[in-house]
Design a protein that fits this description.
Layout lengths: L3 H42 L2 H34 L2 H35 L5 H30 L4 E6 L2 E6 L2 H5 L2 H31 L4 H39 L1 H7 L6 E2 L3 E8 L4 E9 L2 H7 L5 E2 L13 H38 L2 H9 L3 H17 L2 E3 L3 E2 L9 H32 L19
Antiparallel strand pairs: 1-2, 3-6, 4-5, 7-8
Length: about 450
Amino acid sequence: MPNQLVVDLSRLQFGLTAAFHFIFVPLTIGLIILVAVMESLYRRTKDEMYREMADFWGKLYAINFVLGVVTGITMEFQFGTNWSEYSKFMGDIFGIPLAIEALLAFFLESTFFGIWFFGRERWPQLRELSAWMVALGTNLSALWIITANGFMQHPVGYKIVEIDGRKLIHLENFWEVFFNPNVWWMLVHTILASYIVGSFFVLGVSAYHFLKGVSGRKREFFERSFRMALVMAVLATLLTAVTGHFQGVNTARTQPVKAAAFEAVWEGGKGVPFYLFSIPVPSQEKNILECCPIPYLGSFLYTNNPFGEVKGLKDFPAEDRPPVVVVTWAFRLMVGLGIYFLAVAVYTWWKYRRGGLEALERSPKLLKVLLYSIPLPYISHWLGWSVTEFGRQPWVVYGLMRTSEAVSPVSVGDVVFSLVGLTFFYGVLIVADIYLLSKLAKEGPHLEEAPGKGISGRPVEA
């Protein structure tokens, strides 16, 4: 039996590593789509401003991409150092999507990123193709990572074999693993949420420059960027809410105990209400406070049927339940932030449609809301990831392998040493990322006053 402290420290280390990596990933996925659209507009219109937009936002993407690659590689090492028992058990399935991700998606993304970044002064067709290939590679990376994670949430297409007295998972049907419904709901929801990160980032940076009173071509530059990001923000917030609902329904079907933890539903049944506020206490197996019930809404959210049957936490042994308090509050905060993003995006769109940029500039409070909202989609991402991963506990592979069985036979000192080292290393990277992104974003683009007449734009003071 492994030392529980080793288990807890290994979980903490992987959680911190994934959280750090998640700072870079969603912006990478969200921003490259806007850059690719700018490249397409440049090729079709030959309007130099679209090229300048792609260059400026592309530089911000590049900073994030490079630092994200470093944190992603380091995270994968932990499967060998901290989770070797898991790797032995899951290697036949877990290795395939990760190998495809590295050989196909990451190769595609990195190669065309180099072509786009270093060859962007050449043909518009090459710029456009490279940008879209980078976007495709980025999304394919997410697909294969989530394919591996989807199996951990809902194992399908496998059989258990015994080799030298050790039970291992053996892949039996690749396509069943690939078309696992958990994969596709999670993938679409995650990518759309990443588009929220990218769009709110562009909205916030643009709002900063509007607040600084930017004028001339730079004002037009940020208005075009703002308009594109606003369209993405409205669509992404709406679709993220829709896909989130269907992911919840799928979770209730494949991981009912996790779904019960979403809303701290202790007693299952039909026609379950939804409480706007509740405080769960796992030791008493109840919520000590429940208020504002909405009849039948709980059943509808889990089953698409107001009279549908929902399982409660008491339907499962205590040792198979996830940490209810963490899952419940992470879920509620994530949903609350999602509603906030939708409200801000729709209100901003309505305001812009009615009065254009002048109406926004007469509303500095709204511009400040957009500026200060930049970190919130990141927090929402972390909360969503917490709901997914804490909700799977105590299983590392749902129903097949407990987390306590997956750790490496290492000492507490070994884990502490690597934990401190990684925390320091990632801390430096995050500080560097925030510094470089904020410096470049505040400085803004150096625009040519007229195409081909030289650089005359002056950076806005921070």
